[in-house]
Amino acid sequence: MVAFLARRLAGMAAVLLAISLLTFLIFQVIPGGDPAKRMAGRLATHQQVQDVRHAWGFDQPLYDQYLTTMGKVLNGTVVSYSQQINVEDEIVRSLPPTLSLALGAGVIWLLFGVIFGVLSAITSGRLLDRSLTVVALIGVSTPAFFLGALLLYYLGYRLKLLPLGGYVPLTSDPWGWFTHMLMPWLALSVAFIGVYARVLRASVLDTMGEDYVRTARAKGLSERRVLVRHVLRNSLIPIVSLWGLDFAAVVGGGAIVIESVFDLHGVGQYAAESIARLDVPPVLVVTLLVACAVVVLGTVVDILYAALDPRIRLAR
Amino acid sequence: MSLLDVADLRVSFATEAGDVRAVDGVSFSVARGEVVALVGESGSGKSTVGLTLMGLTRRLGARITGSAALEGNDLLGASERELQRLRGRLMAMVFQDPMSSLNPVQKVGWQISEQIRAHEPRVSGAQALERAVELMDRAGIPQARSRVRAYPHELSGGMRQRVMLAMALSCEPGLLIADEPTTALDVTTQAQILAQLRELRERTELGMLFITHDLGVVADIADRILVMRAGQLVEQGEADAVLRAPRDPYTQNMLAAYAPRPARSPRTPGGPLLETHELSVAFRGIKALDGVSLTLNEGETLGVVGESGAGKTTLIRCLIRLMDPTGGTVRFRGQDVTHAKRRELRPMRRELQMVFQDASASLNPRRRVEWILASGLRLREVPRAQWRARAADLLERVGLRPEHLERFPHELSGGERQRVGIARALSCDPRALVLDEPVSSLDATVRARVLELLARLQEESGLSYLLVSHDLMIVRGVSDRVAVMRRGRVLETGPTEQLFSAPQHEYTQALLAACPKLPGQVRSAV
Questions:
Q1: Is the sign of the CA dihedral B494, B496, B502, B507 positive or negative?
Q2: Which DSSP letter does residue B43 get?
Q3: Chains A and B: how many Cβ contacts under 8 Å?
Q4: What are the average pLDDT values for consecutive 10-residue runs of chain A, which has 316 residues?
Q5: In this predicted complex, what is the ipTM?
Q6: CB distance B92–A311 less than 8 Å?
Q7: Residues A2/A315, Cβ–Cβ less than 8 Å
């Protein structure tokens, strides 16, 4: 276990190094990406631009700029080019809405994905299964911004049931937090529910064909027990890894669209705004955050996997 | 009074190609304490009978008519709820593959106690587990008390089948349906499980329906034998009578697989073709191969026999260099295989071809036979224009017809598939074939014909065979010399007849003794 974690940690360092390099270099080749010009302003003279460039060190060699920036990222002093605000303070501010979004939506899509998947599998080929399949496909193919806009218009604007976006901290007003998060959760979950239901349906049907399920029936167990203890226990295993990675992506700001539509000021929205300004430091930090989240949750998933399936041993 | 009465049982399945009648008017009975063997080749419908009695074909969409009564309970008319009450308590079933038949993520003790608690709700979890320990102990599992906490993959094949048996007997059923319970096991393990079942038969009033494709297996255990073919019973009678004087040609054919094959006429082999010298492979301190030295001469067949874990697969992998040994060498026609470079390996691989056990898994399922055969011709740089004609020739050599060129592997029968597997190997124009359990997944009658084909090909073209198998009978019929392997070592090598009539090593003797025998056959040479 210790060796496994050590290896994963080393792997994470390599991933972070590669991703930070790539992100940094991409912004060097983007047209109009010269930060000095943007910072000096539209009407700046050549000399003013040169001054900014020198003051910020943009005239240094690339590797030097990279090392300085990464050093600042690591000790938490990196500031954005456009507003010159400390990036890590901004991230800390935008994490609560993003985590609220990820946790709530993660629970919802897992729960309903499993329920619909199982219902679909046990009625396979019949009307309920076919209807659920159609609903799942609609869910998967509805763009989140469209669904978000529909929800906002009907539930928020017309019926005035829920607030029209924004984020209220859980600690200051739990009910307000809940009502503000409800629509984002739904809008984000729908597509995931569709995918999870389809994956689980296939997994349950596969497991139903296994010899040990036949054994379970031959033992005289009730159909419910066969389903819960023998089929579901085994077919949920692949769902675990799927959930871990999807959850990690949302935590790392992957729900850019939802965060923007509902104006949550989360990590994703922050990243989107920074990309629009070609502002390297925030983009770099957010990208590293996603990478961290994916690697950490991937490790958690592997450990869970080994706990769920005794045949799997963690690779040393 | 009989325990189980089955009258005019018919089972059919609706498929796209119309109704398939799996069982077509089968009637028989099983008395208390009686062992009835239901014997037939694959596709004869014997397993469908067992599964239907357990009520397990219903959800597969089977249409079932006739009647089946177990101790006065109507099995075919029972509701699903009534069936749940009967299954596991009045009738229990043991399946072929104990690995896939046990839930991989639950402890075996839990799986046994689950059945006890399903039928006896007043028994506590701890009591049920205690009974599981007793049952496993009685089924011959050593250290049952600690083994209840084992997962299926932590037990050997024989242990797993004992767990299945303990589970089946946990509620003291009247009827045990055993569907090929020993087919997936090694001979010595098979002998132990059969002894266990015989002991059960002596000790209890249990009635048993023993389903198998192997007449030899039931010779010692069955009171009566039912022979099934294409859904119908073609012969039935007292076990001894059926085995000594079978009336139906189908039964006679199946028995012929047990007849000792005529010993091969002694031949003068050529020089060494494939040699291993002190070949060793160790993974993490476990020696899979431990100093194996074997020689295959030009034009001869060397049989390599061993049970699972003997190192047969590892040996084959080293021979064709799918794996690098940790010590020793392999030489083919005097050239070093173990240290050959990739470019040097190519011609060697062409001349040393493989035929695999499971032809359905080793032929590309999305390609027609023609394409499969052409891949070898391409290696030999045969002009593309000749491929079709050459492929048709190859099929003819293995006893198939040119129209098989258009088929996909799944459109062929098991025997035909294995013939295509052999033709594929021949398409490279090899000097030697490594045959890895080439007939183990085939029925007895098909098996005999494929072995005949191999013998004919050898006569025609002077091929050398290295035949690897767990089955002594197969090796005996076709080998010039035999090597016996166990735990990575070669225990004994010798000319076939000498090895079988006077085995030197005690393990060879045990292997021979464990082979199922028919009445009237010499039990063993020792």
A1: positive
A2: T
A3: 75
A4: 86 90 86 79 84 86 89 87 87 92 94 95 92 92 90 90 87 92 93 94 94 95 94 91 88 84 90 87 89 88 87 70
A5: 0.81
A6: no
A7: no
Q: Are strands B91-94 and B175-179 parallel, antiparallel or unpaired?
A: parallel
For testing the chain B interface, which of A219, A237, A308 should be mutated: the one with the most B CBs within 10 Å? A219
Partners of residue B102 in chain A, C-beta under 8 Å: 212, 215
Query: B277: exposed, middle or buried (C-beta count within 10 Å: 0-12, 13-18, 19+)?
Result: middle
Distances in Å between the Cα of A164 and the Cα atoms of A160, A167, A255, B163 are 8, 10, 18, 62
Q: How far is CA A25 from the centre of its chain?
A: 24
> If contacts are CB pairs under 8 Å, which of residues 196-225 in chain A contact chain B?
210-212, 214-223, 225
Cβ-proximal residues to A178 (8 Å cutoff; 6+ apart), any chain? none
Cα diameter, chain B? 76
Q: Report CB contact under 8 Å: A220, B115.
A: yes
Q: Do B100 and A225 touch (CB under 8 A)?
A: no
Distance (Å, rounded) from C-alpha A103 to C-alpha A96?
A: 10
Contact A215 B86 (CB under 8 A): no
Contact B103 A309 (CB under 8 A): no
Q: Please state whether the predicted TM-score (pTM) of the whole model is above 0.95.
A: no
Cβ contact B104–A218 (<8 Å):
no
- Which is nearest to A246 in space by CA: A289, A302, A200, A196? A196
